[in-house]
Every structure is written in C-alpha cells, then in structure tokens.
Amino acid sequence: MLGLGAYRTRNGPVLNAALPLSMSEMSWQLTDHRKRAVRSADWIGRPTMVFFGFTWCPDVCPTTLSDISGWLEELGPDADRLNIALISVDPDRDTPDVLAEYVANFDPRIAGLTGTASQIAQAAADFRVSYRKVPRDGDDYTMDHTAGVFLFYPDGRFASIIDFHEDRRFAVPKIRRALS
Length: 180
What we know:
- Helices cover about 30% and strands about 25% of the residues.
- It has five helices and nine strands, in the order αβββαβαβαββββα.
C-alpha cells in the first residue's frame, strides 16, 4: 500500500481525496448538450449518476458510457427516474454541440455537460474529482481524470461510487439502492 501511495503521489499530492459534497452543498452551474443551463440544485429530488470524462478519451470514457447504457437497460423503467450525466473535463474541445454528437452514441438519457474552465473546476471541486491536461506531441493532449461513476440519493446525499470496470453484478444493485 505504501508503494501504491508513493506511485499515485509522485507528481504531487492526490487532490480532492474526500467524498463528494451533497448536491445541496454544491455550487456548480454548467451547460448541457442541448445548450440549457444546469445547476446542482436542479438534480435534487431524483437519484443521480455522474461520470467525469471527455469526448477525445480513447478507452475509459466510451467504455464507462457503454457500461452505464447497459446498466440502464438492466434497470428497465426504473432508469427513467435517474439524472444521468457525463461532465466534461475538457472545456477547450467539448462544446455542447460536440457533446451532443458524442452522447448520441450511448443511451439517450445520458446528458453531456460542459462549461468554462472555471465552471468545470468548480464542479470537479464539489465532486472531489481530480483531472489534468497531459501534453502529447505538438499541440495534442489528453486528460487524466477520476474515472468512477458517482451515485446520489434523491435528496442529494452521496450514495456510492461505481469503480471503473466494476462488475455489473455489483454496479446495478448500487444504482438500485440509490433509487430507493
């Protein structure tokens, strides 16, 4: 464990290691893929599932969104009770139009949210998510980011996290608990 901790903090301390705030304590405002303003308070009253990612992601993001689509299918009509969103960590490339095209490849109940760099930073701080731009060749870059799916109860309290590649046998019951 010490070795893992040293490896994870080799580029500085792990940021935002605490649990997410409750939705009622969050203060972010973003724009969805339909160009509508969305605030954390808008999600109180319905269970919520949130994932942070970006449209240029080569593997983690499309895999997670495919997993979410499968979970929603397994939940059946109960899935209609959820707020479900991908919050982009790449405001430079992920405009509402780009997000609209991207989320159209997955379940139609998944919203894509973006905003200015400071708006994304506020949302990440509220959810206790870390992310950073990683330069590549020339002007190209990728984004490192927290890859879990956050679940919240209808009253806005944090319920659980579904880890990347968590087996459906465990993920779906977590979502059902957030629905109750």
